[in-house]
Amino acid sequence: MIVALAGGVGGARLAWGLAQVLDEGRLAIAVNTGDDFEHLGLAISPDLDTVMYTLAGCADRERGWGRADETWRFLEALGALGAPTWFALGDRDLAVHVERTRRLHAGQSLQEVTAHLCQALGVRHPVLPASNEPVRTIVHTGAGELAFQDYFVQQRCAPAVTGFRYDGAEHARPAPALAAALEHSELEAVVLCPSNPYLSIGPILALPSIAAWFARRRVPVVAVSPIIGGAAVKGPAAKIMRELGAPVSVLGVCDYYGALVDGWVIDEADAGHAGALRERGKRVLVTPTLMTTDEDRSALARATVSFARTLYHSAP
Question: Residue 291 sits in a domain of what CATH number?
């Protein structure tokens, strides 16, 4: 049993690979909800949807978000009425948001709604919101505090970041299925996917029960670096690291996670950092980590699982 923590495009890609190499019942994917928000009266869960669409095989691979074969008639009609169109809602994507909102208003939890949507789209492995309770990422910038989607979409990550706050995390509990997965009798490891550490993994780790689990864990935690050769494959991770004064390298990500991670999976381009990681007490696997094809995703997932199991069986 493997529990993966994911968010964003990189996390979704590795989650897809893990879903190919692990049997049903052997993988649970916990997804960030810090970027969830309400828009036009609808409950939007961007990271949950990115992971769900990727696993279902209906994600738009060119954009990296949303659904393939999308149309935009709703958004065009919305703009003609003078309504805000800064957050792109495709027609097919809109159906998911409407159904999510309807079910939430009917009293279902976010975990229950996500399970229904995944079943409808043919996703075999459980995709779990980190929490059923609201956790919202707030970005501290030189221009003041910004709600995540304001920073990420409206302002295109332009403001310089000075820090983050995860509103509601201090009182939020893990979704029941995630709490159960972390206590599974056959749990072998937790995998941190190559997601933005501040925006996708940080909100999950901010939950007190999750932090407590990491502090007392009995299985290894393996992280796949989202930084390759001093750059982020996609998204603002490298920019944020520079603005926070962190090294834009796997070492900077390692310092962010600290003692929470036991083993690091790094790209061949970063093999020169392996010694420094080992000096920090980490186990290291050097392997190709850039996922441009389905074969890349599966190969990285297979290598990561094998590495995690090696750590599990070598633990005292």
Answer: 3.40.50.10680
